[in-house]
Amino acid sequence: PKYDTNEDSIVRVSAAEVRKRLARYYHESGIRGAVEMSIPLGSYRVEIHPSGLAARVAPPPAPPSLKHRQIWVIAAGAAFVLFLLILAVFLSRRETATGRFWGAAVKDPAAVVILAPHPVVYTFTRETFQRFRGDSATHAQRQMEALSGPPEASISLKEVVPIRDQYLGLGSAHAISSVAAMLAVRKKSYNIRFGKDFSFQDIRHAPAVLVGAYANRWTLQLTEDLRFVLADRDGAPEIKDRQTGKEWRLNSLRADGWTPEDYVIVSRLFHPQTGRLIVALAGITQYGTQAAGEFVTDEALLQAGTAKAPEGWERKNVQFLLSVRVVEGVPGRPQVVAAHYW
Fold first, then answer.
1. 16-54, pLDDT tens digit by residue?
2. Is 323 in contact with 261 (CB distance < 8 Å)?
3. Distance in angstroms (rounded) separating the CA atoms of residues 26 and 82
4. What's the alpha-carbon Rg for the chain, to the nearest Å?
5. Model confidence over 78-116: pLDDT tens digits?
6. How far apart are CA 283 and CA 329, in angstroms?
7. Model's pTM, two decimal places?
């Protein structure tokens, strides 16, 4: 019990030798297990503990060529992603043809005023309907059914009743709907005015869209000095080029408004005094006015129509002369006949 191993030189030498052999064994053999044995300095007791090899072992270095290849792949991928980001930003900021056409109106702080045409519509007195249809003619029949009678029948002027500021043509309704929907998508407020509910002050204080041709006196007044104008010859409507004298007429236009073709003037002007935008959509008939509304709100049509436009055309005045085919009462996609910028 009084024996102290620390004072025994043989024990000390033997313990040192065992330490060396254990260290040499682990170093030279390369064998590593989950545990290792060691004899700490100052002690002669064998300790068994986790080797910690998994935490200390580093992955083998990759061959130089593989490292370089990985670097190039990563760099190329990063460059491609950066290119896509730059392209996305560029495309998002590039203004569309529709945006350029309507930009001045959308950016204006005032709400856009859309002026509907105000045609005069005629109907017959109730007594006239009863004379041709009998006493059983109802109010609904007078509203929805055309009056008919023998060809030799005559009607006096007092039996014809003019109606003002109450009706709107289908083509104008389509055009107003197209423009209103386009403005709504761009979160731009607008007001629709009818008939006499419009004055020259509205044009001075807000961007304006004038819908209709011969049934909208503001369209006629504000475009009468431009290159392409609405005109008539021998009572028949036409479009005239004031520079060349060329005319476009509807040779097959019937009295009821049916036609297999139509011509349209789209005018986009800046008010000479206020700088506010004025857009006039004027077809000779309702079919052309409907096509005009489609032209100024359809991105593909405006892109094609402005493909040859001068630089900065969105800051210029412009007139488009369009033609449109009408099939079974439905206008097709308008085609640009001529364009004038100034």
1. 777 777 777 766 666 666 567 777 776 667 777 676 544
2. yes
3. 51
4. 44
5. 666 666 666 544 444 468 999 999 999 999 999 999 999
6. 14
7. 0.70
Helix ranges (H only) for 243-336 are 286-295, 299-305
Work out the angle at residue 220's Cα, subtended by the Cα atoms of residues 217 and 224, and round it to the nearest 5 degrees. Answer: 150
Rounded CA gap, 224 and 267, in Å? 11
Exposure letters 81-113 (e unless 16+ CB within 10 A, then b): eeeeeeeeeeeeeeeebbebbbbbbbebeeebb
Q: Do the strands 190-193 and 112-115 form a parallel or antiparallel pair, or are they unpaired?
A: parallel
**Residues facing residue 325 across a β-bridge:** 261
- Please report the beta strands in the chain, taking only residues with DSSP state E, as ranges in sequence order: 35-38, 47-50, 112-115, 121-124, 160-163, 190-193, 208-211, 228-233, 236-241, 247-249, 261-270, 277-283, 318-327, 330-331, 335-341
- Alpha carbons 303 and 305: distance in angstroms, whole number: 5
Residues in the chain: 342
